[in-house]
Amino acid sequence: MVSILAEPTLILVFVGITLLAKAMLPFVVNHLLVSSWAVYWSPAHLFVVAAFFILLLVETDRMPIHSNTHIEVYMIEEGRILEYSGPLLALLKWASAMKQFILYTIFCNVLILPWALLDRGHGARGDRSGGGSHRQIPRSSPARSCSSRRRSRVCVSYRYQEPLAASFLLAVLAIIGTQLS
Known about the structure:
By secondary structure, the chain is an all-alpha fold. Helices cover 73% and strands 0% of the residues. The protein has 9 helices and no strands. The chain has helices at residues 2-21, 26-35, 37-40, 43-59, 76-83, 87-112, 126-129, 132-154, 161-180. Helix 4 (43-59) packs antiparallel against helix 6 (87-112). The radius of gyration is 18 Å and the shape is globular.
C-alpha cells in the first residue's frame, strides 16, 4: 500500500529533475548541478531534494509509520516473512535492497553530492569517481539516522499518507518552480 502512494511521487520527482536539467540523463543533470551554483541552490532543486528525501525515508522503512485502522499497515516487512520463505523471501529481500541502493545512489550522486562523478567523457578523474558511491552513501547516513533518532525520541508516529502527501506537494512545487523560472 505504501508503494502505491510512493510511486507517483517518485515519478514526479524524476519529472522535476528532467525539467530542471531539460534532459533525462543523470550525467547531464550532474553536469548542470556541478557547473551552476544558481541551479544547485534554486528552489526547484531544493524542493526535489526534500521530496526525494522524504520518499527515501518512507520507501526504505526509516520512518515510524502508524496506522489508525485495525490492520497493521506499518508491519509490511513482517507480513512478507509470514507469507514467503526460502528462495522467494530471499528474492524479495534482494529486490528491496537493490531498490534501496538505487534510490540512495540517485539521491547522493545526482542530487546532493554531484561532484564525485565524472564530468568529462574520459577518465581524468576516474580514480575519484569510480569509488564515489561507497563514500557518498555513508556520508548521507548521519542525516537519515539523526532524523530517525529525533522522531523516535519524540515518539511521533506518522500515518503513511501525511509524509507522502508532503513529498508529493514538494515535487509538484518543484515542477511549478521549474516552469516559472
